[in-house]
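Justification of resources, computational component.

The compute hours requested in this renewal are based largely on the per-chain cost of generating structure records like the one below. Each record pairs the submitted sequence with a full structure-token output. That output is archived, and it is also reused by downstream analysis tasks.
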Amino acid sequence: MADHSRPVTGYPTNNPYPNPSTATAFPHAGPHPPPYRPPPTPRATFLRRLIAILLATFVIAGIITLITWLALRPRLPQFRVDSLSLSNLSLSPNSSLLTANWDLRFTIRNPNHKITIYYDALAASLYYKGESISDTTVPPFVLGTRDETALRATFAAVDRYVDGWVVEGISWEKTVRGSVSFNVRMAGWVRFKAGAWRGRRRFLRVYCGELPVGVSGKGGTLVGGPRRCVVGL
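The structure output for this chain reads:
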């Protein structure tokens, strides 16, 4: 029979209830307050509003200009070479000197029904292939709606020094083909206007290429009839 008065031996019994923590509890840290930002000054507010107004004005003006441009549908002018004559041709192969006179007659037409075209002075240059031979200027003029005008440009070269291949090329074309091809380039500022509307100035470029001049002796004229020119902005 067991003796209940004897002490119990064995492993100690674990306490199912842990001792309360002795650590000190801190309150929960909240979010930091936003940094202080001073209110904008009246000067800064005024500048912002002024910039916004200017930007809006430019955008509205651009939209109005675009709508007007699309409504009027402006078309480029048309250039046509009517004649090109050559005179006093003289070539010096040994010294690469060239002397000659050219007389260019051309017509410009405005195909627009509602737009007038204002031309500043046109700079015109005469070339043999890629070599510039002579330059001149066409005075300013105005072309009304559906109007056309005939103009003249004269070029001259007096003992002008050119590359040797230019003299050789002109001599070869004159002897073998009986004609020499030149080209004319023109450029200048133009403005389109319709009533109270004025478009901004645009730079016009004109290229009249492959203008064959039948040469006999020291002169000649354009062969093959009038030639259309390429026009671009």
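The chain has a mean pLDDT of 86. The longest strand covers residues 179-194.
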